[in-house]
Specification:
about 100 residues; alpha+beta; HU Protein, Chain A; 2 domains; two-stranded antiparallel ribbon; 3 helices; about 25% strand
Length: about 100
C-alpha cells in the first residue's frame, strides 16, 4: 500500500478530502521522525514502538573490488511490532502458490 492509497482509504473512512488525509499522514509520520531525531521513543499501543539504535563502527568490504572499507558508527531507526499487530498478521492466509502478493 502506498501513501496515496492509504490517504484514499483514510479520506473515505473519516469523510475528508484526499489532500486533508495526506496532510494527516504527513503530520503523523513527521511527528514520529522528529521524536526519533531528538532521541525519544514513540510507542503506539497495539501497533508497535519506534526507537533509535546505535550501530557500532565496523570493517566492511566493497563487493565490487573486495577492498576493505571502514563503516563508521551510526544511529538507525528501529520498529518493533506490538502484540496485537503481530497476532493479526499471523492470522492472514498466505496467497495460493504461484501468485505474488
Amino acid at each position: 500500500m502506498t501513501k496515496s492509497e492509504m490517504a484514499e482509504k483514510l479520506a473515505e473512512k473519516i469523510n475528508v478530502r484526499k489532500q486533508q488525509a495526506e496532510d494527516i499522514i504527513n503530520i503523523f509520520s513527521g511527528s514520529i521522525i522528529e521524536a526519533l531525531a531528538k532521541g525519544d521513543k514513540v510507542e503506539i499501543r497495539g501497533f508497535g514502538s519506534f526507537r533509535v539504535r546505535d550501530r557500532a563502527e565496523k570493517q566492511g568490504r566493497n563487493p565490487k573490488t573486495g577492498e576493505k572499507v571502514h563503516v563508521p558508527a551510526k544511529k538507525v531507526p528501529f520498529f518493533k511490532t506490538g502484540k496485537d499487530f503481530r497476532e493479526s498478521v499471523d492470522q492472514v492466509e498466505p496467497p495460493p502458490s504461484g501468485e505474488n502478493s
